[in-house]
Amino acid sequence: MRTYFVETWGCQMNVLDSQRLAGVLESRGLRPANRSEEADVALLNTCSVREKAVQKVFSRLGELRQAREVLGRPRVVGLCGCVAEQEGRSLLARSAVLDFVLGPGRVAQLGWALDAVTAGERVAVTGFSPTQDYDAHLIARGEGARQYVTVIHGCNQHCTFCVVPYTRGHEASRPLHEIVREVESLVAGDAKEIALLGQTVNAYRCPDTRADFGELLAAVGNVAGVWRVQFVTSHPKFFTDKMIANLSRTPRLGSYLHLPFQSGSDTVLKRMHRGYTRDGYLELVGKLRAAMPDVTLSTDVIVGFPGETEEDFEATLDLVSRVRFGQLYGFLFSPRPQTPAARYAGRVARSVAGERLHRLFALQNIVQFELNQSLIGRRVEVLVDGPAKRGSESWQGRGPDNRVVNFPARQGVRRGEVERVVVTGATAHALLGARVAGEFGGSQVPTA
To answer: Residue 268: inside a domain, yes or no?
Structure first.
């Protein structure tokens, strides 16, 4: 086994898990391949949040089986991530090309699984260790200026629609000093933006000192050389007044905050087991904006939850109009295995739910266009991601509010630089900018 490729589906946590998997493989002497069909070891790191995730997995496994029959590669195929945890050993019986299954709580056991395959076994390694094995030094991060750091694993909330507690286990926070040490190492390696990750990131509690998430943010923000700190995903019920006050005082904190509300109806929120009300959510938004006047909020919304009436959905539209989110991610309700909502009566017809989702996006497009237009003339610092999708003549980066800014390339511009631009135009989904004359990015990063 000489080469590997990891395919990643899903959220930022899956991206970081893929980097962990790659790090284990590279520690065993493997090097990256360009695609799964060219690799000796192919790993599918999967997500099971949406419906039909398993069908998608088996479609891809069928393609890899054909590649093995024709090309002789990949020699080893492993299924990792949330689908692996959800389906477990049954996956081995359903796919002959699959050599092992590895849940997200067992990333550190990848080497053991590979050894078992070499010995002629097909294994499923799932479940959750009482102590998290997290070897930060083995993560194959690459050279990106934007880096992810896990601060809390799992989730205890058991929202009735969500499979995460079953696929990622119970909440387990990492020690604060360990997180700070990892951030210091990343900054020493030229990282500029640090994104702290957790399914309920603001539920963080240091297992050693009991420091809360606000105190963790302050510690990370004070690391010398950090340019910007972001975090995702926060849960509305875990914001305290003390934590909000700490947000406003945290050095280098970006102005982007992801705050899912899921539904604007109290009836639906109760059936979702979200732990807050519509009025409570709006009160929290007011407190956050009072403490952080420039904050840009993004959110998640589920449309067509069982029992959702037209009145319930209108309450969701009203909340979107009131809060005016900078970004919104909307989804049709997707019944997931083991979750209570999968058994709820009152399923909303897909045609009705689809029409509601269309109305939600139409409203949000108007809101985003108006918000983005209001930014024309503002100067912003963006972290350069690379050439824009529209073509190599333009580059793109993200500002502290996580908005995409497209701007003309200048000679010598590089990924990972901080570029200063003035906003010259806007669409509903991106800003257009021009470099501020005489100002270049790249090296001017505050030290403390």
So the answer is: no
